[in-house]
């Protein structure tokens, strides 16, 4: 199956996105970044390619969604409930907009919108619940 994932998203301002995601704690892969794009390393073999809207448009035939239109929710796992809070708190402190939060005991998540309105959910799931599937989540 797949070995890597690159989530491509349109952005308005490369420097603003660079500053935001660096403040949240992510690393920028300069090898794949320039005046039109930044590659944000989200984890091993996971990257967000943040492309200026015009550059993003060169990769497809459709109309690019307008800012504020939600067409995806990017969910990223965390090692603990505390890490969920740390990441989202840094995002909000860097200018992100805090979104929904959910606490189901075995699963905990919080979300934020980046400066371009893309929704990021950081979530943690109890390892026993994750291993047990839906039945494991019932406790």
UniProtKB/TrEMBL annotation:
PROSITE patterns: VOC
Superkingdom of origin organism: Bacteria
One Pfam family here: Glyoxalase
Xref: InterPro entries: Glyas_Bleomycin-R_OHBP_Dase, Glyas_Fos-R_dOase_dom, VOC_core
VOC domain location: 3-125
Transmembrane segments: none
Official protein name in the record: VOC domain-containing protein
Record lineage: Bacteria, Bacillati, Actinomycetota, Actinomycetes, Mycobacteriales
